[in-house]
Amino acid sequence: MEGQSRVSTAIKYLTQSTWSHAALFVGDHLSDISSGSGHCFVEADTVEGVRSIGIDAFAKFHTRVCRPIGLDDQDCRAVTGYAISRLGDQYDLRNIIDLARYLLPTPPVPARFRRRMLSLGSGDPTRAICSTLIALAFESIRYPILPSIDIGSTGRPDCPGCVEEVLRVRHHSLYSPRDFDVSPYFEVVKPSLIAGFDYHELNWVGD
After folding, report:
1. How many separate domains does the chain show?
2. 170 found inside a domain
3. Which of 32, 67, 117, 121 has its CA 20 to 30 A from that of 99?
């Protein structure tokens, strides 16, 4: 979602991205607990913490739908169940500061040393930011978002020059909303196109 608040503006500036906020669609999985009528998303709000909301909360904003590929029903239950279990947790404002230090390091340092300089988040397991909450939910089933890729030898004696890629999980506190958009493992869904689109039917001025 492209928010308009001061925090949203700061996040968009820091990440050089249109997107400032992310929420996880959990559908009717919220029916197992007491929640507001029509609530089908879980998000981490700066004021109210981790909460459930309805789709109407996004009516005024530019949004993008990012759908993970390859999840079965059990995976979906695990991801949504993790997010739902975090309802009531507080927002981690310190994580925003640490994310800023990572994205805009001062003084400039080599990229390989930046993360070592961070004290990632508050360290309190009951605190999260929007993208951290979703990253942790997918991490719980080892689903990739934007993992680091290490290249190493396969160790095969019959192929000494062969190499393989090994994924390394990025620390969840370093994810930002844009990562779900640029991830190669999430499909960008445009509902207006899925419903059927014929450009011949458009009504242009002057027709």
Report:
1. 1
2. yes
3. 67
